[in-house]
Design goal:
With about 450 residues, the protein is mainly alpha-helical. The chain has three domains: about 100 residues, Orthogonal Bundle (Fumarase C, Chain B, domain 1); about 240 residues, Fumarase C, Chain A, domain 2, CATH 1.20.200; about 80 residues, Orthogonal Bundle (Ribonucleotide Reductase Protein R1, domain 1). Strands 1-2 form a two-stranded antiparallel ribbon. Strands 3-4 form a two-stranded parallel ribbon. It has a two-stranded antiparallel ribbon with strand order 5-6. Helix 2 packs across helix 6. It starts with 16 loop residues before the first helix and ends with a helix.
């Protein structure tokens, strides 16, 4: 059998590439290397701008030319780094050499030794990951997450008054509205959105074991913790003052746990929407030309929500693993995080793909109000809760002598179908005040929704 041409192993880089393309700009190997170049360049600019070790500030043009290595980072730089790493066998050292080559081209060999000065690879890596993950979350993942919440919010408002039979334990139960049920998910997801948006992206820059040892030997007079804090802050990150060789990754564990939590809420949304479609509450709007089943022409399958379910599970599996393992490093440093962090894009990619499917799926469903109304009208027994609660209130107020309201309604309705006429007859025979009786006689399953609409409005 002839071997295939080189193919992407992950579906995120193959079949689903268009849905997750934005993440690759930040969380690919090239994206990481661009961030590494940025950190190395900015450290050079910081050192020279402060005249460290007798250096002089670079001119504005020199600064622009150095930063162009980041701004114009593309295939030539990607290829050159691969070439350098084939010799160095070390990814960060290859980045250092690339920066040194740019310094040579600019006639700045006299400051070449300030490249990667007093830095361990993890000083560069942790800042680079913080920069790339921050950009991926804020520029790619969060906008799509907000888009899903926005669509849910719009539908919650659209369906705020559409009463439907609730199904606690899968059985007919006290009615609600479709809008209120969707609003529950909006409220849950908004809490997670707030948490994720408040993420602190931490960074350290303190040397091989976090002690500034090399820094102090090079210049005992400098306030190196202040220098480190200023530099990390200049990158838009939050300084972590106390670490081993690595930044402790606690912020990453917190972030990935929060996104995994959001994934599980979205998974719950998918299973509920799937069930509403199965019940007929939602009708799916067929896409022109699309095939639902290869053998059953009538079918329109809820594939957007099923696809999302699977990808949310994959995402949480990866993100949970990252959150569990990244917080542990043997003594001052081991290399397990080097491999695991390269899978951040995989975890976020499956989540992003799921969000894309959910957003598209929500745009392809429509509420069947006639079916909702028919379902409610076929289940008048759900008013048993309302009737026995009113009787209890009447007994407490001294307007009824009924001894056990719950047992009375249980005898009437449990395991039985009760129609409108039967309930009217039953209510008319109750020993309760006329005002309470009138309220119950006016009640229908479709109007027994409490404050559902108001709850949506308050959201």
């Amino acid at each position: 059998m002839t071997a295939l041409p080189p193919q992407p192993l992950s579906p995120l880089d193959g079949r689903y590439r268009s849905a997750v393309l934005g993440l690759g700009d930040h969380l690919s190997e090239a994206g990481l290397n661009r961030a590494r170049v940025q950190v190395e360049v900015e450290w050079l600019i910081y050192l020279t701008s402060h005249g460290m070790f007798g250096s002089s500030p670079l001119t504005d043009q020199q600064v622009r030319s150095l930063r162009a290595l980041v701004d114009d980072f593309g295939q030539p730089e990607i290829d050159r780094l691969a070439e350098l790493e084939s010799t160095t066998k070390h990814d960060v050292k290859a980045v250092e050499y690339l920066v040194r080559e740019r310094l040579h081209a600019l006639g700045l060999d006299h400051i070449a030794e300030l490249t990667h000065f007093a830095a361990t690879s993890e000083d560069i890596n942790n800042l680079s990951y913080a920069l790339t993950v921050s950009a991926a979350i804020n520029e790619v993942w969060l906008p799509k997450f907000r888009g899903v919440i926005g669509e849910l919010r719009a539908q919650a408002l659209q369906y705020r008054d559409d009463a439907m039979l609730a199904r606690t334990h899968g059985q007919p139960a006290t009615p609600t509205t479709m809008g209120k049920e969707l609003a529950v998910f909006v409220h849950r997801l908004e809490r997670l959105r707030t948490q994720i948006q408040r993420t602190e992206y931490l960074g350290k820059f303190s040397g091989a074991t976090g002690t500034f040892a090399a820094h102090v030997v090079a210049d005992p007079s400098a306030d190196w913790p202040r220098v480190s804090q200023e530099f990390v802050g200049s990158l838009g990150l939050t300084w972590n003052p106390l670490t081993t060789q690595i930044e402790s990754h606690d912020w990453q564990a917190e972030l990935y746990s929060a996104i995994s939590h959001a994934n599980r809420i979205l998974h719950n949304l998918c299973t509920d929407i799937w069930t509403y479609i199965s019940l007929g509450y939602f009708r799916q709007v067929p896409e022109p030309g699309a095939t639902g089943s290869s053998t059953m022409p009538h079918k329109v399958n809820p594939i957007r929500f099923e696809n999302a379910e699977a990808n949310l599970e994959l995402s949480s599996a990866v993100l949970d693993s990252l959150a569990a393992t990244l917080v542990t490093s043997r003594l001052q440093r081991d290399l397990t995080d080097s491999t695991t962090q390269r899978n951040i894009g995989v975890g976020l990619g499956h989540s992003l793909l799921a969000l894309d499917n959910i957003e598209r799926g929500l745009g392809q469903i429509a509420l069947d109000r006639e079916l909702l109304a028919a379902d409610l009208d076929a289940n008048w027994e759900v008013l048993a809760e309302a009737i026995q609660t009113v009787i209890r209130a009447e007994v407490t107020a001294g307007r009824s002598t009924i001894s056990d309201p719950y047992a009375l309604l249980k005898e009437l309705t449990r395991g039985k179908r009760v129609d409108h006429a039967g309930l009217v007859e039953f209510v008319n025979g109750l020993d309760i005040g006329q005002a309470a009786k009138n309220r119950l006689l006016e009640l229908t399953p479709a109007t027994y929704v409490g404050l559902a609409s108001r709850l949506v409005d308050e959201l």
